Fold:
Amino acid sequence: MILENIKILICDDNHDNLDTVAFILEHEGYCVSKETDSTNLIKKITDKNPDILIVDIWMPKITGDEIIRMIRADSEFKELPIIAYSARYDIEKVAIEAGADDYVSKPFDISHLIGAINRVLKVVRF
Structure:
């Protein structure tokens, strides 16, 4: 598996978090796209065709768990691997109930996020 071929789309309304996570994942060798506005996410998924979506749960307009439910209900994208992250105390419950494949609690060590990515990649088997 060549990491440069793995496309990850990150959606987070916090620019600092988004830029930091994107920078680290790019440094790890992934091809990363970013989105700060959850209302644009479905279009961005269509345009970028990511292999993995990483989405913050706490976002304005459309929350991350609502986005996950929308994706799971869409026949075109329902198989897209999704990793949710949040500082919510109940991130595990919210993420799993919404249909995320994995989750990471914020603040997190980057190794936890890389671990979640590796777990969903094993299931997808590129």
Remarks:
- Residues 110-124 form the longest helix (15 residues).
- The two ends are 7 Å apart (CA to CA).
- The beta strands are 7-11, 31-35, 52-56, 82-86, 102-105.
- The chain has a mean pLDDT of 92.
